[in-house]
Amino acid sequence: MRTIIRASIYSLLLCLPLASHSAGVLKILETALETENMTVSLDKSGRGEISVLPCSNCTAKRSKINGPEQVRVQINGKPAAFERLLERNGQPATIIYNADTDEVVRIIW
User: Fold this and answer.
1) Structural domain includes residue 7
2) What is the count of structural domains for the chain?
3) pLDDT digit string (tens) for 50-79?
4) What is the dihedral of CA 19, 21, 23, 24, to 10 degrees?
5) Which of 14, 58, 64, 71 lies at 20 to 30 Å from 43 by C-alpha?
6) pLDDT average, residue stretch 19-36
C-alpha cells in the first residue's frame, strides 16, 4: 500500500512542472446574474434590451439583446423558443452575458 502511495506522489510531483507550462491566462468569457425581476423590450426583429434588477435595493443593469440567433432561451433545463421570452417578462431568471460585450447570450428559467 505504501508503495502505491509513494508511486502516486512521485507521479504527481513529476507532472507538476508540465502542468505549469500548459496553464495559460484565465479569461472569463461569460458572466451570470440571477434576478428577481427582469424587463424585456424587443422590436419586431427580436432586437432590444433587457433590464435586470438583481435585488430590491440594487440599481438596474441594462444589456442588449441582439435577436433570436444570438440568444438561447432555456425553460426547466430544456431549449425554448425565443418568442417565449416575452411571456416570462417580469419573472425571476438567470441571465448569462458575454463578458467582453455585455450582450445577453442565454436566459434560463
Assistant:
1) no
2) 1
3) 998 777 788 888 999 998 999 999 999 899
4) 180
5) 58
6) 75
